[in-house]
Amino acid sequence: MPAHERLIQAFFRTVDAAERALGRLRVLGPLEVDIRRLNPFPHDGAVARPANLLSGRIPSLSHLTLGTDHPRPDFAVLEAADPSASGLADGDPSAGGEDVVLIALVPPEHAEAAEAIVRDAGGRL
């Protein structure tokens, strides 16, 4: 990273919050910015075959609640242990954690302003 740039890395609960911060960061001038959702599981979230509740073909709890299907049962066990796989989820935003990351390269003279914008938007540095 060149000396004339500062890296800002912030975590958000939602993509919308990160995009709001990005909109406010744009007033600081040209930036290199990326927003990504982190996934702790080694798949893209695609469902190979939908669960058939009538036939009883439910390979795992993670298949039923998260819509995933793994050939290796150890992945399914780890996913089933995740709080988001629970049927008890009540929409509490703390259950999902901060899985959205915003990374921005800003000029050093704008670093403090960029950090303040990120914090005001709900990001954690």
Summarize the structure.
This protein is an alpha+beta fold and 125 residues long. Helix content is 28%, strand content 16%.
Strand content: 15-25%
Mean pLDDT: 77
Q: What is the CATH topology assignment of the largest domain?
A: Alpha-Beta Plaits
**Category by helix and strand content:** alpha+beta
Radius of gyration: 19 Å
What share of residues is helical? 25-40%
Q: Total number of helical segments?
A: 4
Low-confidence runs = none
Question: CATH class of the largest domain, please?
Answer: Alpha Beta
What is the end-to-end distance? Answer: 18 Å
Q: Write down the overall geometry.
A: elongated
CATH architectural category of the largest domain? 2-Layer Sandwich
The H/E string reads EHEHHEH
Describe the largest sheet. 3 strands, antiparallel
Number of domains: 2
List how many beta strands DSSP finds.
3
Task: Please give the order of strands in the largest beta sheet.
Answer: 1-3-2
Describe this structure in words.
- The model has no long low-confidence stretch (mean pLDDT 77).
- The longest helix has 11 residues, at 15-25.
- This protein has a 3-stranded antiparallel beta sheet with strand order 1-3-2, with helices on one face.
- It is built from 4 helices and 3 strands.
- The protein has 2 domains: 1-39 and 99-125, 2-Layer Sandwich (Alpha-Beta Plaits), CATH 3.30.70.2750; 59-92, no CATH class.
- The chain has 125 residues and is an alpha+beta fold.
- Helix 1 (15-25) runs antiparallel to helix 4 (111-120).
- The protein is elongated and about 60 Å long.
- The two termini are 18 Å apart.
